[in-house]
Specification:
With 209 residues, this protein is an all-alpha fold. Helices cover 82% and strands 0% of the residues. It contains seven helices and no strands. Helix 1 (7-33) runs parallel beside helix 4. The longest helix is centred in the C-terminal third of the chain and has 38 residues, at 169-206. It is globular and about 55 Å long. The chain starts with 6 loop residues before the first helix and ends with a helix. The model is unreliable at 1-7 (pLDDT under 50).
Length: 209
């Protein structure tokens, strides 16, 4: 007897496919209009949207359907921003920073939780995990802003158009604020939903041969 996908899985796949279609349209537009930025951002985003399916199929890491949608939405929003919405909608950059920061927080928590579950010598209390998530995201945010600054310098020196750019000190501070907001969302609500992923990763990576 063939098992049918759960409704949540079906809905997630439909939404993901719709976003992938838009990303593909961005790439096609970039090729037709000679816009390297749209081609690069759209192609990378499309590649990332396949990551949840690859993790489930090749590594048997069970992802909640909406966790996969979370990853897809983050890169989708950034690609639309790079395609023009950053310049047209003032708060779009804040939205993408919050989403991206929440993904960085989730990755940091899953890594730490996997090590915690694997080793008896490592113990990460829930309160420390909360602080750890914030520190990881804030550190990632600082590195990201330095990366954008380096791209600005390279753009000035070479005259090339870079896919990312800074827009002054005020913009940098706001980016870090919304990074913190994304981290807080994961710190408060994400641990319950990410523990199962961490347990599976620990079993896959650290299981005895």
């Amino acid at each position: 007897m063939m098992l049918l996908p759960r409704p949540s899985t079906v809905n997630q796949r439909r939404i993901t496919r719709a976003m992938q279609a838009v990303l593909l349209a961005v790439v096609v537009y970039g090729v037709a209009a000679g816009q390297p930025k749209a081609i690069v951002n759209g192609s990378i985003a499309l590649l990332i949207t396949t990551l949840p399916a690859v993790l489930e199929r090749n590594y048997e890491i069970p992802l909640d359907p909406w966790l996969g949608l979370w990853i897809t939405t983050a890169v989708f929003l950034h690609t639309l921003g790079s395609a023009g919405l950053y310049a047209q909608i003032g708060w779009w950059d804040h939205l993408t920073h919050a989403f991206s920061a929440s993904l960085a927080a989730a990755a940091g928590y899953i890594t730490a939780r996997s090590l915690d579950l694997h080793s008896d010598d490592i113990s990460i209390p829930a309160r420390f995990a909360f602080v750890y998530i914030l520190v990881v995201v804030l550190s990632f945010g600082v590195v990201w802003e330095l990366f954008e600054f380096a791209l600005d310098v390279a753009a000035d020196e070479t005259g090339l158009t870079m896919p990312l750019a800074q827009h002054g000190l005020d913009d940098t501070i706001r980016d870090l604020m919304f990074n913190s907001l994304g981290a807080l969302m994961v710190a408060f609500f994400g641990q319950v939903h990410l523990t199962g992923v961490a347990e599976t990763i620990r079993e896959e990576l650290f299981a005895p041969e």
